[in-house]
Automatic annotation (TrEMBL):
<dbReference type="InterPro" id="IPR003439">
    <property type="entry name" value="ABC_transporter-like_ATP-bd"/>
</dbReference>
<keyword id="KW-0067">ATP-binding</keyword>
<dbReference type="GO" id="GO:0005886">
    <property type="term" value="C:plasma membrane"/>
</dbReference>
<feature type="domain" description="ABC transporter">
    <location>
        <begin position="11"/>
        <end position="247"/>
    </location>
</feature>
<dbReference type="GO" id="GO:0016887">
    <property type="term" value="F:ATP hydrolysis activity"/>
</dbReference>
<dbReference type="InterPro" id="IPR003593">
    <property type="entry name" value="AAA+_ATPase"/>
</dbReference>
<dbReference type="InterPro" id="IPR027417">
    <property type="entry name" value="P-loop_NTPase"/>
</dbReference>
<keyword id="KW-0046">Antibiotic resistance</keyword>
<dbReference type="GO" id="GO:0046677">
    <property type="term" value="P:response to antibiotic"/>
</dbReference>
<dbReference type="InterPro" id="IPR050763">
    <property type="entry name" value="ABC_transporter_ATP-binding"/>
</dbReference>
<protein>
    <submittedName>
        <fullName>ABC-2 type transport system ATP-binding protein</fullName>
    </submittedName>
</protein>
<comment type="similarity">
    <text>Belongs to the ABC transporter superfamily.</text>
</comment>
<dbReference type="GO" id="GO:0005524">
    <property type="term" value="F:ATP binding"/>
</dbReference>
<dbReference type="Pfam" id="PF00005">
    <property type="entry name" value="ABC_tran"/>
</dbReference>
<keyword id="KW-0813">Transport</keyword>
<keyword id="KW-0547">Nucleotide-binding</keyword>
């Protein structure tokens, strides 16, 4: 809480710049005048292609990397000047194997981290048991982590991120490797965190996940913030970019489709298979009519997804990585 009684943003980033030295060349700007504000209890998605700057941002927030310019604050505390006070406010969940002790059991891992956070033996035990239950690993608490599947390790990572009872959670690709059921349960867990007033900054390449979980989504490319939106607004914005898939389409018919008004392009996706992209509301209808009249029966329309939004926002470069 600030002196005025108004709660400080959970995360506030202003004009953030981070340059990396590159051997024999000009520095690489990983973050470029970046602004972001995340409220307590908000789940905020960070979406961007490889190299967009997401990890760099998370590293600066978690005080392991210094900014070149600009400021970043967590609950009103500066990540550089107040780094020591910022750390206990954060829970960081990076995916993969990093940071897990494979030979130790899940419970031992958590007790170890609880001790690092200054909790006594008894409290550490209690916390480990509670968190393992919470992430659905209770029945496997006493098994060595090396026997866990990738998704189970991800859950343990999340439990680890919660050991210090953080107000802000940085989740980097948290559901990678989880089966759909686990991913669904994980989403419920994120809902709980939101209800507890914790802020969540979620890095993901999974548009469906962002759409399902996030209150707002920031699209990043080349270290810059392209847009910050309610994920549903973006879906609506892009509804005019409807796609029609069809197979059994001869070349001459594909050419006729390409000439229809509002058709942006027709892409061949296999022998006789096409993906028709439109860039005007209602343009999919004449495409469907033309296909059906020509006797094509294998036709479907794709609902607008965040991925479409994302690709349109980053433009023609598509998913190519910047130099
Ligand atoms: N230590 C470093 N030295 C030089 N360049 C770096 C370093 N770390 C990151 N970069 C560069 O900064 C840019 C942003 O990288 P970053 O890891 O933040 O991207 P990202 O959005 O997390 O990507 P991904 O989705 O692949 O994890 C990239 O061009 C990357 O090559």
């Amino acid at each position: 809480m600030s002196i005025t009684g108004i709660e400080a943003p959970a995360v506030e980033v202003r004009g953030l710049v981070r340059d990396f030295a590159v051997k024999g060349g000009p520095p690489r700007r990983a973050l470029d005048d970046f602004d972001l504000a995340v409220a307590p209890g908000e789940v905020h998605g960070l979406l961007g292609p490889n190299g967009a700057g997401k990890t760099t941002l998370c590293k600066i927030l978690s005080t392991v990397l210094l900014p070149t310019a600009g400021t970043a604050r967590v609950q009103g505390l500066d990540v550089v000047a107040d780094a020591k006070r910022v750390r206990p406010l954060l829970g960081i969940v990076f995916g993969g194997e990093r940071g897990l002790y494979a030979r130790m059991t899940a419970a031992q891992n958590l007790r170890f981290w609880a001790a690092l956070y200054g909790h006594g033996r008894r409290e550490g035990r209690r916390r480990a048991a509670e968190l393992l239950e919470r992430v659905g690993l209770g029945p496997r608490a006493d098994e060595a982590v090396e026997t866990f599947s990738r998704g189970m390790k991800q859950r343990l990572h999340l439990a680890r991120g919660l050991v210090g009872d953080p107000r802000v959670l940085l989740l980097d690709e948290p559901t990678v490797g989880m089966d759909p059921v686990s991913a669904h349960e994980f989403r419920d867990l994120v809902e709980d965190l939101r209800a507890e007033g914790r802020a969540v900054l979620l890095t993901t390449h999974d548009m469906a996940e962002a759409e399902a979980l996030c209150d707002r989504v920031s699209f990043i490319d080349g270290g810059r913030l392209l847009r910050c939106e309610d994920p549903r607004v973006l879906g609506e914005l892009l509804s005019r970019h409807e796609r029609v898939r069809a197979s059994g389409v001869p070349e001459a018919l594909a050419a006729r489709l390409a000439a229809l008004p509002g058709v942006e392009r027709v892409r061949a996706t296999g022998p006789g298979a096409v993906l028709v992209e439109t860039d005007r509301g209602g343009a999919a209808l004449p495409v469907l009519r033309t296909l059906v009249e020509a006797g094509v029966t294998d036709v479907s329309t794709a609902p607008p997804s965040l991925e479409e939004v994302y690709l349109h926002l980053i433009g023609d470069r598509g998913m190519a990585v910047r130099p």
